[in-house]
Amino acid sequence: MIFAGVFRSGTSVTNNQEHGILVVEDDPAIRRLVSMVLQRQGYRIDSAADGLEAVRKLGLGEYDVIVLDLMMPNLDGFTFLNTFAEQEPDRLRKVIVTSAASPAVIRERMKGTPFSLLPKPFDIGELVERVRSCIEAQIA
């Protein structure tokens, strides 16, 4: 199982630094921006340039949230999410998907998977709020 045990359990933590976020984005500028903004919010950030790198990092660390682009080389976000849905379906609530693809197309391809969708271009403040909500939902 690629994703077994890669997320934290829903323990209550008040310090953002104790929350890990994996940013998976092939565009270096977007990856740096998202990482920098979330780091300034106090989160512990790790990043990956594609799905394969993300899988490797998931094997080495625990993350409270994954911010995932869909259109990437090597292992795209759709394949990543499909594998994830098969192996850790309850954990999809910890995934925030960013994509320039049509939301209707994404929902159609990913029927029944409960991830959060944030279409590109997105408001960085909205992303920060989605990350915060995702973490708070795990604590509740």
Radius of gyration: 14 Å
Identify low-pLDDT runs: 1-14
CATH fold node name: Rossmann fold
Report strand %: 15-25%
Number of helices: 5
- Looking at the overall shape, the CATH architecture is 3-Layer(aba) Sandwich
Order of secondary-structure elements: EHEHEHEHEH
Mean pLDDT: 83
What can you tell me about this protein's structure?
The chain has 140 residues and is an alpha/beta fold. The protein has a single domain, classed as 3-Layer(aba) Sandwich (Rossmann fold), CATH 3.40.50. It contains 5 helices and 5 strands; from the N terminus they run βαβαβαβαβα. It has helices spanning 28-40, 51-60, 77-87, 103-109, 124-139; strands spanning 20-24, 44-48, 65-69, 95-99, 116-119. It has a 5-stranded parallel sheet with strand order 2-1-3-4-5, with helices on both faces. α4 links the parallel β4 (95-99) and β5. The longest helix has 16 residues, at 124-139. It is globular, with a radius of gyration of 14 Å.
